[in-house]
Structures are given as structure tokens and as C-alpha cells.
Amino acid sequence: MLENILTLQQNPTSIFALLGVLILIVAGIQSRKIKLTTKILVNVSLMLALAVILHFLRLYHFPQGGSVTLGAMIPLLLISFRYGAGIGTLAGFAFGLLNLLQDPFIVHPIQVLFDYPLPYMAIGLAGLFTRHMFAGVFAAFAGRFICHFISGVIFFASYAPEGMSPIIYSLTTNAALLIPEMLICFMIMKFLPIERILSAMK
Fold this sequence. Notes:
The chain is mostly helical. The protein has one domain (50-200): Arp2/3 complex 21 kDa subunit ARPC3 (Orthogonal Bundle), CATH 1.10.1760. It contains ten helices and two strands. The protein has a two-stranded antiparallel ribbon with strand order 1-2. The radius of gyration is 17 Å and the shape is globular. It starts with a helix and ends with a helix.
């Protein structure tokens, strides 16, 4: 038992693998409490399709994967605001799998977990802030940033310039990706008739 604990301490990949799997298990347990009607499934499917289309409208595509898009996260945010964090998390999981098929960059199985399903599941955090939507957007992107940051430190350290800390490399690279994406979402949401859209999704 002690040897297993020491192995985990020396191997951060194992620790984050356990963390990722634990998050998926908790999300799976919580999802069993969610009631999905036909109307919800149709609306979520339409929003997921829109998110996939918007993901192709890229302002910049990073060599190691990841893009700055014209608001690809807006449909996932709308799902979270309308139906809550639970359904938002499920929609994020589905989008993560679609994104994996659409734009894969794989270096390790655990990296896949932290770069595809988990960061987009984090968009569901927006559903906890239905009365403060811009705070919800910030929380969603903060959750997504943490997932990509962990992946960057552990699995993409070799891409860091010589002499640069993997932590600084992951921090700056993911900030350069997610801050513009978040600001674009803020700008789009400011001009969208959000209340009318959410009302139409009832």
C-alpha cells in the first residue's frame, strides 16, 4: 500500500488519471438524476451542431491543437444557462467527443481526457450562475483553463522553449488561447438577445 502511494506521488500522470476518472464517475452518477425530454434532446442536439459548425470558424489554430474561434462555446453556454449545470456538463462531454473526432491531437490517453471531455464538461459550470451570466462565462472558461493547463504541464512540457518552465509555458499558451476566446464570447453575448433565445429553448 505504501509503495503504491509513493508511486502515485512520483508519477503525476497517475494522480491526474485518477482525478479525471473520479470526475467522470461523479458526473456519471449525477447524470442519472437528469430527466431528458424530447424537447431538451432536440434543443441540445441543435446547439451541439451549431457549436461544431462554429468551431470551424477559426481565427487561429495552434500547432499543438486548440483554436480561437468565433464563439464556438456560445451554444454550450446557452445550454448550461437554460437547462443547468447537469445538462450543460453532459452537452460538454458530447461536444468533447465530437471535437476529438473533428480535431484530434493525441500524445497520451490521459491527455485526451484533459484536453477533450473534461474541459468542455467544465463549460457546464456556467449553469450555476444563471442570474449572473458573465460570471458564468468566466467560471466556465476558468474550469476549461484548469483542464488544459494540467494537460500542458504534464504532457506538452517538451514543446516549451529551452529554459522555460513547463508551468509558465502551459500558462501562457493556454491563456493566449482561452482569453481571446472568452472575450469573444463576452462580446457576442452582449449583443445577442439572450433572454429571447433561452425562452425559445423552453
